[in-house]
Amino acid sequence: MLSDAASGKLKIVHGDVLTFKIEKSFPRSLKRHWEDDPPNVHIIGNLPFSVSTPLIIKWLENISDRNGPFVYGRTQMTLTFQKEVAERLAATTGSKQRSRLSVMAQYLCNVKHIFTIPGQAFVPKPEVDVGVVHFTPLIQPKIEQPFKLVEKVVQNAFQFRRKYCHRGLGMLFPEAQRLESTGKLLQLADIDPTLRPTQLSLLHFRSLCDIYRKMCDEDPQLFGYNFREEMKERKDKQQEKEEKESYGL
User: Fold this and answer.
1) How high is the mean pLDDT of the chain?
2) Is the pLDDT of residue 190 over 70?
3) Diameter of the chain by CA atoms?
């Protein structure tokens, strides 16, 4: 109905936004160099709350790699999120809303929480208010490391958001070398280990990512380390030991 009313100016595509190839939807003539002004392509969406976080992470990775919707250049986005998520995306260093999303979005984009729409404006009415957030990709990212590396450092830092930052950052390293390697990371990055994750600025995270990258270059197996896998392996060994003891083996 909408497509018919728009006289060919509107194309409606039924599909999954997480897998839909937006980069195939527009002519290549719209493409601009990354250093130029944003192209005449704009992503505007009233996102379902259930997919908003994985979707924005996906698009942020596309920005880092300059692919997907960003093959056209610094494609701007204006998107809706649950109000609390919108506040996290735009949160400044030291604020209680500061989170993994804040850092991941702001190291790649200029992020603005434009306004809030009350839930009663929607039909059916959601239980929460909605925040409208505008993203403009930066010409130069504030952390110049691969997206997956940045994501890993930031994710671990905020793992224990109420504790000192050394607690979460320590999970980047195997238990046998955790204390020593965490101390080395923080010392070389010139970061006070008693800062809370919310107090870490983008400059702090840039230093952490740069030093962690060097440590990974020195130990190629380090980046693949996952502390949850080590915990599971240790738990499985303990369970196996207890079972053997119970059978008198």
Assistant:
1) 92
2) yes
3) 80
